[in-house]
Write a sequence for this structure.
């Protein structure tokens, strides 16, 4: 029986790179993205869900449960960002950023738990939140700081499972299209982040994994 991974946000730059690396290594990958046309070609087991819609999330996990018995490696790689000063930030934008970076991790974790192997490894894509307390980043950094707190509490509930909070530096993905600046020249390729995530899985890592 092959190892099984479940990746939320599989059509993003990092999610896609992890999916491809895992498949090269012979894993079965359940990939979940928002748009069917984005996910179709990435893995042979794909589902669509908006991570902030509980029904979508429940339906995706339910459908996945017909294709695999359990999940060994679970990865949350969705995320969203907007740089707007608080004075101009719309509630809808605040909500969208919180949905992608904090409510999504809650809903996808909650509904995936019954499908996780006893010693499953969970991986969340965070950010180096203490360095990001910059003007116009309030929604993003609040969400990522919340994610860190969520993960810390979850780890105490899920004894026996490993949880890694990956905190990348700049990674060259479409994420930067949402920012008013170009990625730095030394931005890491997403494939490198994927390899670090898989190394963390192999080492049985738990806690923060800073890639800066
Ligand atoms: N790239 C970087 O420099 C960097 C640095 C530090 C941390 N990170 C973190 O790493 C993670 C992955 O980033 P990335 O670089 O791979 O970004 P990306 O290429 O923009 O991918 C993000 C993915 O999240 C999906 N998503 C957003 N909101 C969603 C929702 N409500 N429901 C379902 N899917 C949703 C997007 O789907 P759509 O295409 O449908 O919008 C997209 O596929 C994010 O959490 C990000 O905060 C990235």
């Amino acid at each position: 029986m092959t190892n099984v991974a479940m990746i939320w946000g599989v059509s993003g730059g990092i999610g896609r790179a992890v999916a491809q690396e895992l498949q090269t290594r012979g894993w079965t990958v359940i990939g979940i993205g928002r748009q069917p046309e984005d996910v179709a070609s990435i893995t042979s087991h794909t589902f669509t869900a908006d991570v902030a819609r509980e029904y979508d999330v429940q339906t995706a996990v339910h459908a996945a449960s017909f294709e695999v018995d359990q999940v060994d490696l679970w990865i949350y790689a969705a995320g969203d960002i907007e740089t707007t000063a608080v004075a101009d930030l719309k509630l809808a934008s605040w909500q969208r950023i919180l949905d992608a970076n904090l409510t999504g991790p809650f809903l996808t974790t909650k509904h995936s738990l019954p499908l996780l192997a006893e010693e499953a490894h969970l991986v969340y894509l965070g950010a180096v939140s203490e360095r990001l307390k910059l003007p116009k980043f309030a929604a993003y950094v609040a969400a990522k700081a919340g994610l860190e707190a969520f993960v810390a509490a979850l780890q105490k509930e899920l004894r026996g499972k490993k949880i890694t909070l990956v905190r990348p530096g700049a990674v060259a993905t479409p994420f930067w299209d949402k920012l008013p600046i170009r990625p730095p020249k030394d931005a890491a390729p997403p494939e490198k982040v994927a390899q670090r995530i898989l190394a963390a899985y192999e080492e049985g890592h738990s806690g923060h994994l800073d890639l800066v």
Notes: The beta strands are 4-8, 28-33, 45-48, 71-76, 116-125, 162-168, 207-211.
